[in-house]
Specification:
The chain is about 60% helix and about 0% strand. By secondary structure, the protein is mostly helical.
Length: about 100
C-alpha cells in the first residue's frame, strides 16, 4: 500500500464537517432542536481552524525540509541556455 503524508488541516476540516453532520442528524432524529443558522459558526469556524492548521503544518514541513543546492551552487547548468549565459566572457560574439 502506498503511504501518503499526513495532512492535519484536512483532519480538522473533516472533524468539523462531521460534527456539523452529527448536529443535523440529532436534529432530524428528534434528540434536540437546532436552528438552521447554528451550522454557520461550526462550518466556517472549522474551515478557518483547518486553514490555520494547514498553514502551521506547511511552515513546519518547510522548516524541516533539507536545503538542497540549486544548479548555480553546484556548478552544473540547469539548461543549455544557462550554459550559454554562464560560459565565455559574456560578449555579444559569444552568444548564438
Amino acid at each position: 500500500m502506498l503511504s501518503h503524508e499526513f495532512q492535519p488541516g484536512r483532519l480538522v476540516a473533516g472533524f468539523f464537517l462531521a460534527a456539523a453532520g452529527l448536529v443535523y442528524a440529532g436534529d432530524a432524529g428528534g434528540l434536540w432542536e437546532t436552528p438552521w443558522f447554528a451550522m454557520i459558526p461550526i462550518v466556517v469556524g472549522g474551515l478557518f481552524l483547518a486553514a490555520a492548521t494547514a498553514a502551521v503544518a506547511h511552515g513546519i514541513r518547510k522548516a524541516r525540509r533539507p536545503r538542497t543546492k540549486g544548479p548555480a551552487a553546484t556548478g552544473t547548468p540547469a539548461s543549455p541556455e544557462d550554459e550559454a549565459r554562464t560560459s565565455g566572457s559574456g560578449a555579444a560574439s559569444d552568444r548564438p
